[in-house]
Design goal:
Largest sheet: 3 strands, parallel
Strand content: 5-15%
Number of helices: 3
Strand order of the largest sheet: 2-3-5
Structural class: alpha/beta
Distance between the termini: 45 Å
Amino acid sequence: VHCRSSGINAEYGGPVVTVYVYKDAEWAETVKLVDETSPYGLTGSIFCRDRSILHETHKALRHSAGNIYFNDKSTGSVVGQQPFGGSRASGTNDKAVSLNLIGKWTSPQAIKETLVPLTTHTYPYMDQ
């Protein structure tokens, strides 16, 4: 399996959702595809109900994005509170505006997990 869709292997400047449908039996191959298809790695999300699979997937993709979100949308970085920076061709993963600038010499990754299922894609301020 190799996906040449620009939604998977290109970098865009706005929130973009790419969906890749795979068979359960192809899960490990699909995780490898996600890790190897794109040279970019700004941010990403893993949605999964099985916590062991969630953590196994994160372990396999730990270097694939600067920030990883567990069961949450990937547009939720809070400036000044959550360090942010891309990895691979998306940046140097420095985690700007953070005390974690030691990240220049390591590769930290911020993780945000939502334990309550999402009911909407909007934020409260959007209702105003």
